[in-house]
């Protein structure tokens, strides 16, 4: 079931730059009452608070630290919309010497981090009427690219967990959405070496559209939309 962003209290992880920052600003444009910017370094949100004032609330959060996540959930007890956007990426293939370490690093943030956020915030969302959980996954969750073997594996695992959460959280009235961007022009995208990438604002627009429609799958970007069209039948008939 879809909903409006107007008047909602949101929390966005990794909201100080890239996709997260674009999502935060899109929510404010749509009339969100307040957005918690959950980031590793709260001082990195200073420019946003300078523009939006107390509608942006910086909070320290690291997806690998359960104690910080639980503390944030206590502070942000009025949240009705949670967007888990933060993540990490390495360029590691299956035959690299450090492949196990790279996979452990990405799983800890991209998969365990999602689970930690949900365990902390599911009770908050339930107490506030159900709300929504948006997980920023990737087209890498559907198709592995050899030079990013471990990243793709971690995003595939996160997508699998997101599918489970769709069913689990439905019982408490929480709508779950899985966003799948293609290559995006962010610091992470630059590190990955993407030659062609979509602007992060396009992903933010996709998040807003998905929230309003309540649609579980949302693909963002030309490459992602092409992949989504090919995947649509399976997604609709099997997953959704």
Automatic annotation (TrEMBL):
Enzyme Commission number(s) from the entry: 1.-.-.-
Pfam (any one): adh_short
A GO molecular function held by the record: oxidoreductase activity
Oxidoreductase in keyword set: yes
Keyword terms of this UniProt record: Oxidoreductase
InterPro entries membership: NAD(P)-bd_dom_sf, SDR_fam
Recorded family membership: Belongs to the short-chain dehydrogenases/reductases (SDR) family.
PANTHER family in the cross-refs: NADPH-DEPENDENT 1-ACYLDIHYDROXYACETONE PHOSPHATE REDUCTASE
NCBIfam families: PRK08264.1-6
Protein name: Putative oxidoreductase
Species in which this protein is naturally found: Gimesia fumaroli
């Amino acid at each position: 079931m879809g909903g409006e962003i107007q008047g909602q209290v949101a929390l966005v992880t990794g909201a100080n730059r890239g996709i997260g920052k674009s999502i935060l600003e899109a929510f404010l444009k749509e009339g969100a009452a307040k957005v918690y910017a959950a980031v590793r370094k709260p001082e990195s949100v200073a420019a946003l608070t300078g523009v939006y004032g107390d509608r942006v609330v910086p909070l320290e959060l690291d997806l690998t630290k359960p104690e910080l996540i639980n503390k944030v959930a206590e502070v942000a007890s009025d949240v009705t919309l949670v967007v888990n956007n933060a993540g990490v990426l390495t360029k590691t293939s299956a035959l690299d010497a450090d492949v196990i370490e790279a996979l452990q690093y990405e799983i800890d943030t991209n998969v365990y981090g999602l689970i930690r956020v949900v365990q902390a915030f599911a009770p908050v969302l339930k107490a506030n009427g159900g709300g929504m959980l948006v997980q920023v996954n990737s087209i890498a969750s559907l198709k592995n690219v050899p030079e990013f073997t471990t990243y793709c594996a971690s995003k595939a695992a996160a997508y699998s967990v997101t599918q489970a959460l769709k069913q689990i959280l439905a019982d408490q009235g929480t709508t779950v959405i899985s966003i799948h961007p293609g290559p995006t022009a962010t610091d992470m995208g630059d590190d990955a070496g993407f030659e062609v990438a979509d602007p992060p604002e396009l992903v933010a627009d996709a998040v807003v559209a998905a929230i309003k429609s309540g649609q579980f799958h949302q693909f963002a970007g030309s490459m992602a939309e092409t992949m989504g069209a090919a995947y649509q039948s399976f997604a609709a008939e099997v997953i959704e």
